[in-house]
Amino acid sequence: MPDAGEPAPLQQFMDGLIVRNPGESEFHQAVYEVARTLLPYIDRNPVYRELRILERMTEPDRMVSFRVSWQSDAGEIVVNRGFRVQMNNAIGPYKGGLRFSHTVTPSILKFLAFEQTFKNSLTGLPMGAGKGGANFSPKGKSSAEVMRFCQSFINELYRHIGPNVDVPAGDMGVGAREIGYMFGQYKRITGSFEGVLTGKGLEFGGSLIRTEATGYGVILFLAHMLKESGRDLTGLRVSISGSGNVSLHAAEKALQLGATVQTLSDSSGFIHDPDGIDAEKLHWVRDLKEVRRARISEYTEQFPTVAFHPGGRPWHVPCDVALPCATQNELGLDDARCLINGGTIVVCEGANMPTELNAIELLTEAGVLFGPAKAANAGGVAVSGLEMSQNSARLSWTLADMEDQLEQIMTDIHHRCVEYGREDSDRIDYVAGANIAGFRKVAEAMLAFGVV
Ligand code: NDP
């Protein structure tokens, strides 16, 4: 966050934002990270300043909040709160995931929706930005309870979304099961079969590799970063946090490209397997997390030579590549110091805003390559965009089509980051590159619309 030594325009901009959004620390953090790299660019292009483009981009178009009442299996009435932040639709319908977690707050959703503006722009596809969810966690709930919750959630959300208006997808706590329940309820209420959600099952309008796309995309982006500096993934030791959708698919792709995956985690702690989590072990973990919905600590019962570290994060294990893929602010200053001392060459973000700002600064100063989430994890929303295209055309593209398109989109995103992030020293500042490239397209569209 800004300190007394910040340049006056950045300080003023952040002071205004903080007054308008009191107590929303995650939103402040996300905007600050962007504003500090964008304001110098905006200074060189004063029309963006004069027409207050960044001020407009940090104010959601609208945000709805609503009651979600549902009945537990025990017959009790539970009341949760649902939200949708419609951040910016300058370049396409609002697009972004739904998060179901007890940690959901307006601040978290605004930070995610703001990040989504840049990420969606970077994909090159016509998608605006939104984010939503509820302070409800499916963990520990029966499928019948999750279904009743999803139906109640959609009973209100349906009036705010639509294939040309706002197209939500999954995020933490929202996978294929939840999307199925929500799509079914939307269809029932409206009587209309349309591409209103992405991440759908393949039988009812879903796209091949949507499930895998975020994790795969992270590794494709990482491979480009390594290639740009004359390396590849073969034989590198990779530490991954989380054991959800993004983590497990990142692990799978990293293995395919010849890396050794040595850690996975969940909110109870992490496992470190020095022999490497190979394809067979990963298959076992997928069953553990996706079918049995159990804890990562059980890995040590199946593979007794492996240690489980309760409550810990995997960044103290020496590695070549660190992939934070679990949640926001999961890699702090001390973790960054450990990574640097352990010889890490790249940190590439799979989760949204997993690295604290002072940790990014330390890593960058130490010469560690840093791939920011809005570029590295854009593969998921990109394939969501392709799912929208397939739904509109009433077609399903083949696996080969989808793999090629994901690969091309990640290559293009990397290219845009390099184009806008290359410094005089030839070093690539991926953070600045992603922020500026993402900003430009949305800003130009907003200029074209006049003052709205
Ligand atoms: P999942 O819900 O599938 O998995 C999340 C994982 O992170 C779980 O292993 C979870 O453990 C762990 N986790 C959650 N909170 C914490 C915590 N406080 N400390 C340690 N571990 C934690 O989510 P996804 O994989 O879908 O998403 C992960 C991240 O990637 C999020 O930041 C999300 O916004 C981002 N993302 C996801 C996309 C997607 O396509 N799914 C697209 C782009 C970004 P536990 O089971 O114990 O909660």
The SSE order reads: HHHHEEEHEHEHHEHEEHHEEHEHEHHHH
Molecular shape: globular
- Distance between the amino and carboxyl termini: 29 Å
- Enumerate how many helices there are, as a single number: 17
CATH architecture of one domain: 3-Layer(aba) Sandwich
Evaluate the radius of gyration. Answer: 21 Å
Major sheet characteristics: 7 strands, mixed
| Helix fraction bin | 40-55%
Give the SSE map.
Elements (H helix, E strand, L loop, with lengths): L7 H13 L4 H20 L1 H5 L2 H5 L4 E10 L5 E12 L5 E7 L5 H17 L6 E6 L8 H15 L8 E5 L5 H15 L19 H19 L8 E4 L4 H12 L3 E7 L2 E4 L6 H13 L7 H4 L4 E4 L10 E3 L9 H9 L4 E3 L8 H9 L3 E3 L1 H4 L2 H15 L5 H23 L8 H19 L4
Parallel strand pairs: 3-4, 3-5, 6-7, 6-10, 10-11, 11-12
Antiparallel strand pairs: 1-2, 2-4, 7-8, 8-9
NADPH dihydro-nicotinamide-adenine-dinucleotide phosphate binds next to α9 and β7.
Structural features, described:
By secondary structure, this protein is of the alpha/beta class. Among the domains are: 62-193, Leucine Dehydrogenase, chain A, domain 1 (Rossmann fold, 3-Layer(aba) Sandwich); 212-371, Rossmann fold (3-Layer(aba) Sandwich). Helix content is 48%, strand content 15%. It is built from 17 helices and 12 strands. The strands form 2 sheets. It has a 7-stranded mixed beta sheet, with helices on both faces. Helix 9 links the parallel strand 6 (237-240) and strand 7 (260-266). Helix 2 runs parallel beside helix 5, helix 8 crosses helix 9 and helix 8 (210-228) packs across helix 15 (379-393). The chain is globular.
